[in-house]
Amino acid sequence: MIVVARRAWVALLVVAAWLTLGAAPASALGHPERNGSGLTTPPRRTAAVPPMFRLLLPWTSTPAPGYPGALWEPASPANYTVADRPADLPVQRIVIHVAEGGFASTYQWFRNPAVQASAHYVVGSNGEVAQMVPEHDIAWHAGNWAYNETSIGIEHAGWTNHTIFPDAQYRGSARLAAYLADKYLIIPDRRHVIGHNEVPDPNHPGEWGGIDHHTDPGSTWNWPLYMAYLRAGAFDTYQQVVDNATPGRVRYSSAVWAASAARPDHFGADYLYTAPRRDASPVSYKLRVPASDSYDVFMRWPCNSLYNRSVTVGIATVSGYRAVRVDESRNCTRGWNWLGSFPLAAGDSWRLIVSSVSPGAGNIAADAIRLVEAGDPVPPTAPVTSVTPSATSLAVSWTQSTDNIRVGGYQLWLDESKLYQGTGRSASVTGLRCGTEYTVSVRALDMVSNRSPKRAVTVSTPACPVTPTGLAASGATQTSLTLDWTPSGGTAVGYDVFLDGVLAGHTSGATFTFANLTCGTSHVLGVAAVDAAGDVSAHTHITAPTAAC
Fold it and tell me: Which of 165, 188, 168 is nearest to 177 (CA)?
């Protein structure tokens, strides 16, 4: 059960400042982003903490990387802001950087508290990953505070506009980005996975690259390849794999193509191969396309350095036949090799071939094809919400939603405020007011943050206690006054009494005597009904004097 306090104060988060000095590589000196925030003085934490507590919360510093397999190379706490994302701030973007240096020199550089910059991760040329800032904290990487608050920054070893980034580095970074996209339901498109050069300058509208106008990742960064790897690794959009042995989805002439399992790294039990021919006798693949959209096409082939270097793969797109040349003598150990992104029409049809015709020497292999949709236009179904009100709280539960890919989580809204996002399916909303109408809605989210239709439920908390009536003062003495009233009935279990507007006591009866008063003095005597939940009715009062001196 999730408890969501409507009036809850923000949890106080701190970390003790520890200074780990690290020498900066000369190549990295130009990269740090002047606090990385767009603010003159970025906050050290998202909530102020009394000094006496600042050494008492060691759990606010992550002792190990969040990403499986990453090195933990923590940045100086002076270089980022302690937070509690996504509880206090959503994580909506990934920002791609180039470090202007090497792998180790980058994370060592962020150990220096004078740098006033950081990123969450750095990826090396071989695809290795080091984490420097916990994901729930705010790294200073974008040069725009609003972007820092809602993004995760990934540095890449290399130099902007000079480094030809290796395939292993793209794949390693894309695996990390896919993990983050799944974890935070980040949409895997170029509006939510952006370069540092695409971050707005917060001080000069129309200028980019943050406050210092950075240009990374630069002209040598292959965005189409990177995004294809990210989408394929995230499994957040429609995917289909057709192997050479998939029933009903592959056709070929057995007089031309033969099956074999002799070569390593093929997909499935075997693969097809043939010697190049002059007459066309292709292997055709039947692919199901759920919606007219852009699709990444990947291909697998077994390992043989003598395989054909000029294999033609034909794809039927909405704009006509497209031919792609594939070198099957290379890259077999990478797994799935990206052929490109293509606009495909909805339908289930024969739309891809591996040709048997080639000007090159060496056998041609036809193994497996993988299709990955660029987006997901289908939202999840709306959950059915049940709400049980009590005096100051609501018990909310909802049914499980369904989706064409998978459901990523749920959002709970009270009126216009989002109180919860997660995978749970029940919550208790506390801190409400009696006798008040509330609108509750629960919306499911899929893996690319499509939201289900909104089906609001309107409920009211039970009525507040009835205001007491029939107030009368009696038994006045020089030092006391007695107040009597008619019992409220209903939900009242007791009464608060007030003297001159100040709470003077509580009683379960319908009378109260105020003592230790001054003779010959008028006083305002008040009373309010209280129910079992602590709800208080409106106050009512009369004025009465004590006996003359």
Answer: 188
Write the Ramachandran bin of 212: left for phi over 0, alpha for psi from -120 to 50, otherwise beta: alpha
Chain centroid offset of residue 32 CA = 26
Residue 468's alpha-carbon distances to 476, 481, 487, 524, in angstroms, are 21, 18, 6, 15
Percent share of the chain, pLDDT over 70: 89
Backbone angles phi, psi at 107, to 5 degrees: -70, -25
CA dihedral of residues 248, 250, 256, 258 (deg, nearest 10): -90
pLDDT digits 0-9 by tens, 153-199: 999 999 999 999 999 999 999 999 999 999 999 999 999 999 999 99
Strands 522-531 and 93-96: unpaired
Each residue's pLDDT tens digit, 8-57: 333 333 233 333 333 344 333 334 454 555 565 678 777 543 333 323 33
Residues 6+ apart with CB under 8 A from 119: 97, 110, 132, 133, 139, 141, 153, 154, 155
- Reduce the DSSP state of residue 177 to 3 states and report it: helix
**Sign of the alpha-carbon dihedral angle for 197, 200, 202, 207:** positive
**Reduced to 3 states, what is the DSSP secondary structure of residue 280?**
coil
